[in-house]
Amino acid sequence: MRYYADTDPALSTMEIEHRDTVRKLAGECVVVMENNGVLPLKSKGNIALYGNGARHTIKGGTGSGDVNSRTVVSIEEGFEAAGFTVTSKGWLGRYDDSLKNHQEKYLERIKKKSEELGMPEGMVMFADPIGIPPIPPITEHDVVESNTDTAVYVLSRDSGEGGDRFFTQKDYLLSDDEIKDIRKIASSYENAIVLLNVGGIIDVSTISAIEGIGAIVNVSQLGNMGGHVVADVITGKSDPSGRLTDTWAMRYEDYPCWSGFSHNNGDTDDEFYREGIYVGYRYFDTFKIEPKYPFGYGLGYTKFDWDFKSASLDGSRYTATVGVTNVGEYDGKDVVQLYVSAPYGNIDKPYQELRAYAKTPLIKAGESADVTLTFDMKDCASYDTGSACMILEKGDYLVRIGSDSRSTFVASVISLSEDVIVSRHKNLFKADVEFEELINPLLARDEEDITEAEKLTLDPKSIETVTFDYVTERHLLEDRRSGEHLTFDDVLAGKATVEELTAQLTVEEMAKLAVGAYESDALMQSNVIGSASLLVPGAAAETTDKLYDSRKIPLMILADGPAGLRLQPHFKADAQGNRIMGGEVFGMAFNPFPEDLPEDHVDYYQYCTAIPIATALAQSWNNDLIELCGKIVGEEMKKYFVHLWLAPGMNIHRNPLCGRNFEYYSEDPLISGNCAAADTIGVQSWGGQGTTIKHFACNNQEDNRMYSNSHVSEKTLRELYLKGFEIAVKKSQPYSIMTSYNLLNGTHTANNFDLIQSMARDEWGFEGVVMTDWYTSQEADFMGPPSDKYPCSSSPLCIRAGNDLQMPGCEKNVTDIIDAVNDGSLPLADLQFCICNALKITARCFA
Ligand code: BGC
Q1: Looking at CB atoms within 10 Å, which of 290, 294, 306, 777 has the fewest?
Q2: ∠ at Cα 509 (504, 512), nearest 5°?
């Protein structure tokens, strides 16, 4: 076996470059929430660091989203490298003891549970995360010993796939220990700063209510350079120009779906999206609920003045220019946001929706720069379920420009004299259970002063109605070159088409190609999910090579993300290349390497860069920055021979407690779509490596994730949960889409023809390959108990739906497909269609 990994453990030039790039960029992901002027710190010297994330800084969440980097720079290390003397070592040592004790007990518990349940430890860990140990009290002695007037408290939270977060202390809420400690620093130090090293929303109201806290900064989880980035930001070397991409509520109960979410109501089988389109600011702004920090909010260190320069309408495209002047003391970047309030007519609508945004370049104190904001009025249409049309209703569209969703001014008013049908669709997502959705109760908008606003008129004739051709049946391919034995090499050489090659394959051959390289099950079981590849250890899986000898069809390697490329950083093989099992995968070595290693064994290294988590990237509001991060990942994929990145994740942040929110960007689909597109453009810029946008769709809950049924209306799907995927597909054509585990209105998304074929392919023009999430269509006991309520997804129905690859799959998937074609329940043309999709992407990877 040939590995692509390095045999030299030394830092490579590429690794150094990637680290430097991330360090330079990541300050933009940091959001200053409160600052009384204490930041940036004016001088270096002694500093007291406290909190569970000070020494054990979280670089990103757990599970398949955890990237195994060489090292992680903690905030303590970051401050020390920046020239501070950390003078709270006593407290940090006491926290270490508490953590060690907690970890030992945890590992024992996991091992025991794993034996009892017959599940790999990694899987048990998913459902039962380690949590936070008791936090030692900060004593008067600590304060005196620290000998400084500046204290930084780093509050961390961790979560990951397979389990949702809890509305309890040590999770969404602060623990009593933490509150006491934060009060202590507030009363004992002149400069008391709280840093949130979190992947998602927590109860920040409690912290800001503590008198004496000078600054609260959401430093998020910034990858393996995190500690350096934080030190750069705190000292003002980098500008923290991040803005929130979620609404941070005063109280958790202010989120509209709080009571019914996941385990909160004791029912994880059925999740009714009763709040409809009213998620995040769409809810808070429409229903006039005061948030703690609105969507789009962030302070930075400097101040900006804006000059609205011009606006125009060219056909249906609106463009505005805003001049931004830095009137503060520090150099910095600003984010200009544009929201549109569509007229309240017959179709339900929120108060406003984000339609465009722009990040300025770095503007020096006293200097100015112009930014351009543009959007198409067609994107302001709302879905009318009765007529199955996207409609722009007549009336006045108010274009608001502002620095967050609550601080805007009306820049333009665009009038439309008649209703315009932007596109005609088919309703694709019939409810399996009827339920009532929240609607906007307002019949009229509040009076607003719009005298200063620029008045524009949209000509209804500038918009042509779009219609779609929906595929219902696929065409059977006939073997037109029957005298020849075509191979994949012929396809690569341009001597045969993918269709011609597919037409020569037997049902058995195609069924094998439609299922991943499941032989590595044994490896997977001994290890954990997300590392089933043989060729590239730590990669999540690979497609099959069963048709390599006969047809030269190569396998593709698939590895996780989104916070970088997830591979096993260090593995061993004997001199013949046979893997020696063992090594660290989830940050904890359950399977140490054997002691009797052959003398001539070889050590291999795959050190990848952990970039900021998706939420942090989104907080930069900078698509160029995200594209650069995508480029980093793409280059590492090329180096380590990975073809498809199982990222970015782009589910909507519906509720703060979703365990995987850190892997996703925002509560808003425009941001999610733009970020996923930027990531994709970066990764795919190398040629031969592609992204897999996931989890398609409505995987907004982790508890019971394989069997939970998301009940969502057609309108809400189209305007919110599918919108980001639509934007990403149209802007960047990712190589792949991964369906989710859950059911959507009673049908597993993996089996949903309307979602995969009618929506992604027919309406959006998706040209890539669709794959399942891991072990879909398998009652895999190691993934948790089967459901009493809902059946498992079906392998033949995946093929019918156009879900081309079942990953990593099992023997039963193959036989189920063969049986279904043979008994006539699955059209052969459907299987051929899936194989063509898979081979087309394989061809792009090996071109
Ligand atoms: C996750 C996916 C991931 C896959 C492979 C699944 O458990 O849901 O996001 O890509 O594992 O590791």
Answers
A1: 290
A2: 145
